[in-house]
Amino acid sequence: MPKGSNTPVPTAALRVELGWSSGPGVPDADASALLLVGGKVRSDGDFVFYNQPAHTSGAVRHEGKRDGGGRIVDTLLVDLARVEPAIETVVLAASADGGTFGQVPDLYIEVRDAAQGGVVARFDSTGASVETAFVLGEFYRRQGAWKFRAVGQGYSTGLEGLAADFGITVDEPQHTAPAPSAAPPMPQPPPPAAPPMTTPPPTAPPVHMPPPAGVQPPPPPAPPAPPVRLSKVTLTKAAPAVSLAKQGGTSGAMRVNLNWQVRKQFSGWGSKRGRAVAMHADLDLDLCALYELTDGSKGVVQALGNAFGAVQRPPYIHLDGDDRTGAVASGENLTINLDHKQDFRRILVFVTIYEGARSFADLHAAVTLQPQYGAAIDFSLDECTVPSTVCALALITNTGSDLVVQREARYLVPERGVSPQRTVDYAYGWGMNWTPGRK
Hints:
The protein folds into 2 domains: about 5-165, Lipoxygenase-1; about 230-430, sav2460 like domains (Lipoxygenase-1). The chain is about 5% helix and about 40% strand. It is built from 2 helices and 26 strands. The radius of gyration is 27 Å and the shape is globular. Mean pLDDT is about 80; it is low at about 175-185, about 265-280 and about 325-330.
């Protein structure tokens, strides 16, 4: 599509892919969406991005990145059938992290039918220079139907400037002003004489009258919503670990989210390794966690055996549910209670294939750790080149004064007759006893 053109799109679930070519010196980029009424958001909740990955309506969510074949793709899922009637426009934007879009080659936005996979619209953005944020496209209502417009409007003020332009309140970093240079003291005139002290007459205490019968007092004003935090941390092979304390994640609940895309295809008969892997629509992945507490107790949180855990009592880890699609509004989630961080010795978050595939090959998954207070931590899984049915995602270790998150992204291959859980136990030395189970 040329810049400024538009095309009708179905009122359905659409997968929006922001893509570019990777390479040395190419900065990272992030996709985001803003739901607008009259050209502005109604509240900061109408901003969907890496630190706020899902809209409350379930209509828009950020699915995360995948890296393969020299190309990086960041994905949003927009279900136009679920967009609230008041919303007129869904803006689709990108922001550069650590550089400008003049350094990002082959930038494009592509809209696909989430169910069928066919391309609905595509816009290739060219001519970027110093821009650090772009509105690449937008969905907008016209006479009861939806259209997609190729926009290509750049900003030199990054995601912060773009968000503020649409009405988002941004949490700006605090800067301390430098102290002014010292100047010689000026002579001060003598203070005026104090007036004579007088004792004020006593006053009666204020009388609080109750409201008339049947009249309810007005509710107290709601506290202002906290500003949106734009900071984030992306873990890579070169920088695989981060301190939760340094990112502000020292208390509250931390959500660990896994999202994936189901590929209804074969990854290639007669491949280099002489194997074939089928990905089916009924692919069922299980997000799990091995834990070891400071009192020496160990265990696992997983859907298998209904070991969903608990947040307010040991192990202070809870699996929210069992998602069999990877494409619902929230994916699979673990909740970790950071108010009990002193009770954790280590936590290993991992994922297993329960059914629907024999390997993680051709599976594109993203992991996000979102503390209630603090920056989001995310990473994508590397391409799987081994017949793996279990992948260690992240290791969280108590150092005594902090929790450190280590990106693992480690595919493991179980030996014949050995379960995925036992395989990850052996690899990390957990030392538990395992028995067969089912969901």
